[in-house]
Amino acid sequence: MQDFLKGMFTDVDIKVLVGRIICAVLCTLVFFLFFFYAKKRNLQLYTYITVGVVVVLFALSFLIGRAEMGTYVWLAYAVLAVLGLMLFISDINRHLFRLSVKRKFFRENLAAHYGSEDLSKSVGEIVKSCLRLSKTDTGALIVIADHMSDEILDSGIKINSEITAELIETLFFPKTPLHDGAVIISANKVVSAGCYLPLTQAQNLPREFGTRHRAAIGVSAAFPDCTAIVVSEETGIISAMHDGKTKRYLDSRQLQELLECAMGLADESAEERLWGE
Amino acid sequence: MMMKKKKGMTLSQKFGHFFRHYFVLLLLAIGCAVVTVLLFAYI
């Protein structure tokens, strides 16, 4: 073993050494990524298992011999990699989406295209409509998104209209064809109404959460940059969902703050204060 | 009127915060990576 370790650094070609250093850096990144998500998801057991397997394989390889252990080493690493991907693929997906340049470009374009006065007016209209819908116990689901998938937009009816409280209230008026789906607001416009959203499969939700709330949590988890506002049909309670997180019993001031964040009027620190990191 | 410019922690502050929180994980990842490279060089 000592001879092998000495040989790793003395009798080796410089190209091979550089290759190994690059491999070590890449492996560090991959391991760190998995350990990071394991900590975030409170799945530290994955970290302990990975470290344990790596150490045991290393020890066994030197004790038993390279010919016998080769296949098992490959197999163990493949299992660890597949397990890590299965557990954390949704988190990796979400973070990649969040980091995507597209979102930044969109916000800059939005800022350049619409003034903060127009955006504030739209926020006011949404707040007004939500409060009125809440008073009359009318169910509503409004999604404010920088970027929404075409699949969801196409599931409803295209509106492309200015945001007004009257329009939103009309869209959620009971017994009308569009009242059951979600209204999507994007680029300071009511883009689409009556849209179908992906439902969350989470089991640990309050009993009073119905399909509308599940859809709001589902879409906010699938598209972390969007904020969904739900008005309960049974209780009139206004809730907001963002990045899979839920805030309930919102009053007009809280709702306004959340909407300002969603529309890009507030800074990042306000977003962190409202929703956490 | 233009929109407010986004504020918050500076990049170095964010990095420092991240590094403090995940230092142990980084050490574990480096350890595992070095052992992995040695292992695959050996087999």
Structure explained in plain terms:
With 277 residues, chain A is α+β, with helices and mostly antiparallel strands. Helix content of chain A is 60%, strand content 13%. Chain A has 11 helices and 7 strands. Chain A has helices at 2-9, 14-40, 44-64, 66-99, 101-113, 116-135, 150-154, 165-171, 211-222, 252-262, 268-275, and strands at 140-144, 157-161, 182-186, 189-195, 227-231, 238-242, 245-247. A 7-stranded mixed beta sheet of chain A has the order 2-4-3-1-5-6-7, with helices on both faces. In chain A, strand 6 and strand 7 (245-247) form a beta hairpin. Chain A is elongated and about 80 Å long. Helix content of chain B is 74%, strand content 0%. Chain B has 43 residues and is mainly α. Chain B is rod-shaped and about 45 Å long. Chain B has one helix spanning 11-42. Residues 1-7 of chain B have low confidence and may be disordered. The longest helix of chain B is centred in the middle third of the chain and has 32 residues, at 11-42. Chain A binds chain B through residues 4-5, 8, 20, 23-32, 35-36, 39, 47, 50-51, 54-55, 57-58, 61-62, 66, 69-70, 73, 77, 110-112, 115-117, 119, 264-269, 272, and chain B through 1-8, 22, 25-26, 28-43.
By DSSP (H or I, 4+ residues per run), the number of helices of chain B equals 1
Q: Mind describing the biggest β-sheet of chain A?
A: 7 strands, mixed
Strand segment count of chain B: 0
What share of residues are in beta strands of chain A? Answer: 5-15%
Biggest chain pair interface: A-B, 45 and 27 residues
Tell me roughly what share of residues is in helical segments of chain A: 55-70%
Q: Characterize the biggest β-sheet of chain B.
A: none
Shape of chain B: rod-shaped
Q: What overall form of chain A do the CA principal axes indicate?
A: elongated
Order of helices and strands of chain B: H
| Straight-line N-to-C gap of chain B | 65 Å
- SS element count, helices of chain A: 11
Number of strands of chain A: 7
